[in-house]
Amino acid sequence: MGIGELDREAHVPEVTGAAAAPRTLAEALRARGDEGLAALLRARPDLLSPVPNDLTQLATRAGTRGSVVRALERLDRFALQTAEALAVAPDPTPYPVLLALLTGTEGDPEIEAALPGAVALLREQALVWGEDDRLRLVRTARELLAPSAQHPSPTGLGPTVAEATSGMSPGRVQEIIAAAGLPATHDPVSAVAGLTGLFTDRPRMDALLDMASPDALAVLDRLVWGPPYGEVTANPAPPVRWLRDRGLLLPVSPRTMVLPREVALHLRGGRAHRAPEPLAPELGVQREYRPQVVDNAAAGQAQLALATVEELLKSWDRGGPQVLRAGGLAVRDLKRTAAALDVPEETAAFWLELCYAAGLLASDGEADERYAPTPAYDDWLDLPPAERWAVLVSPWLTATRAPGLVGGQDAKGRTLSVLGPDLDRAAAPEVRHRVLGLLATLPPGSAVEPESLFARLRWERPLRGAAQARAEDAEAQAGAVPGDLRSRLARWTLAEAELLGLTGRGALSGPARALLNLPLAEAASAAEPGGGVELTVAAGRAATLLAPLLPEAVDHVLLQADLTAVAPGPLRRPLADALAVLADVESKGGATVYRFTPGSVRRALDSGQTATDLHEFLKAHSRTPVPQPLAYLVDDVARRHGHLRVGAASAYVRCDDDTVLGEILADRRSSSLGLRRIAPTVLAAQTDPASLLEGLRSMGYAPAAESAEGDVLITRADAYRTGARTAPVPVPDGPPAPDATLLGAAVRAIRAGDRAATVVRKEPTAPTAAGSLPRTSAAETLATVQAAAMTGSAVWIGYVNAEGAASQRVIAPVRVEGGFVTGYDHTADEVRTYPLHRITGVAELADDQV
């Protein structure tokens, strides 16, 4: 909004007639009810920071560039097209003119039906004000959307005849109107008006174009839908010269011509847009399933998600990879993680980011910084499976980090790493909610056709998607996935929802509907998924629905003669933890296969168990007899376990059997360890104990680490955790949406402030300028407030607080004593006490305001 318009809004008095049309945006807002103001503040929460003092300040803030840009970015395509049409229409614009710009001369019933809603939306958001006979687009929005040479309009229209001829000499203007068959005039203004009248008169314009050659009409056809600018040579071709001479093309520079707006609209049949889109694209259904099939498939994915997260974090129990100096995980460590999980790198990045968002994974903050599970991971393991799933999906919905960006490059050419900086995208939570909400509008069991979903999202936020696409151009050129960010986020959301079990076979599951607070039996309007219900409560409902769908945990395995064990379902927690130490996972799926190896048995012995403990464990939890090869494996490894002892010298090996030490020294594979005998039963090494242990184990021995006291060191898988870490806070996408309490309080404050600013009052002894504080002497101030307290009337005061901030207030004094006045402050809507020495002046309200 320009300075002149704001100045008018600040000084034009309030319209007293109910039927009077508003002359400024402030007056239009003043005519709204409380619900209308609340709707504006709800749609544009940035106007609430801080709460405006009055409606004039609210109107001023609503016209600032940053606020208008944010509001335009949140319009759907048809509302934006309506605003774009207003930007190329006369100001103010009657409703029939706006309708003609959108429907053209032929009309369009769908546009006619949708246009009132679009205008109402623009009015609600204070982007348009005025009655239907004088619609006005906020000046800042007009400046942003109106066509110019630097910023072409999406309509493809160029400047008007008046704008294109503003710098043209009067003689040249007269030549144009003469060539167009118009009578000469005495001034350029009337000449331009005559030419504009010709171009907007359809019969006369048709007659003029009938005289054009096919080549000239072809030139117009190339420019009619934009861009309207074209380059010409110093000696243009005859068709271009014919168009130029009659003003159908006007010069904007020595080498550039432009198609005037009036000419383009005539050629378009009056339409401002080639393809107005009054209706949102329909969502296509790719395939339909029975809802029970969808829920079962989603539950299977949820169970796999829990197993994957547990496997990932368990592999980092003793400390994960180091943190890069710039933050994040190295590419080689991501590759190793993906190989360990047997998933693509993109999927591994998602699981890592999910654990990070849920607060289960963090860096330890040490000098040699590395990643490790947090204490919250241990608490997570103790929860029932459905509740563990809820802990994962709740932060996923609200997280602003986008794992799909991993592997791309930022604007400076730096690779974006998993768990590193620069992965936050503020639009991610909104897109996730919207994608799931749109899936919920389909019949239960219906899988969406992805391209129709992306088209719908582009229709809902066209300007924002385009702006984000421009912001992501550098990333796309550097190797990121092309396309606007919202479409990319939507594509990633579909994949991630399937991984998490929110969808099954591409259709939304019942637990996901509960998570979004959507009806379970029928499709719902997904305008605002969540419905104001706390996410934790909704997650609890979803977990309750998911729990019966998950397979029951079992407390047994099936041991086989090939040194494997088959778990016929998810194992109960103590059994799963113990078996993960004793055996290695060979394959995953509905039934998990574990394999026993010398290394896995040694790992169990290292954790403090004995051979007897392992035999009893296998007998207690196997539905089949313990195979003889497995019993022999346990006994053989246990017999050799601890026979060798490794300690710190730098490192040493000791063994009661000196022949074993002789074998080690004679083995060529031990040369890298730098071993030498210092006693019949002791070898000293030049490497550290950990490397020595690893080297001897690779040679086929089963050494055990020992402490300085000579005791065997017991190592456990859960020995290392980070300090207490909180989950990362999502990056906000602007100010948060206000709740009903805040909206009500803000509306009351704005109304009260507006009353104080616009109330009609009696002039004090010393007249005050409009908008300034009243000035009265101390004696006059005291006498006036005392009289008001006696009569119970309200007065208007100027007040300066201890920080020096000045304000105008309407108060009803009830007590004046000790240098203070106490009364009901209509501006603050509460009883307050003010020092008399801080009141600059006082004035009585006019009789009709009392």
TrEMBL record:
A GO MF term: helicase activity
High-level lineage: Bacteria, Bacillati, Actinomycetota, Actinomycetes, Kitasatosporales
Protein name: Helicase C-terminal domain-containing protein
One family name in Pfam for this protein: Helicase_C_3
Keyword Nucleotide-binding belongs to the record: yes
Origin: domain of life: Bacteria
Key words, A-Z: ATP-binding, Helicase, Hydrolase, Nucleotide-binding
Membrane spanning residue stretches: none
Domain Helicase XPB/Ssl2 N-terminal: 557-679
Domain WYL, residue spans: 780-842
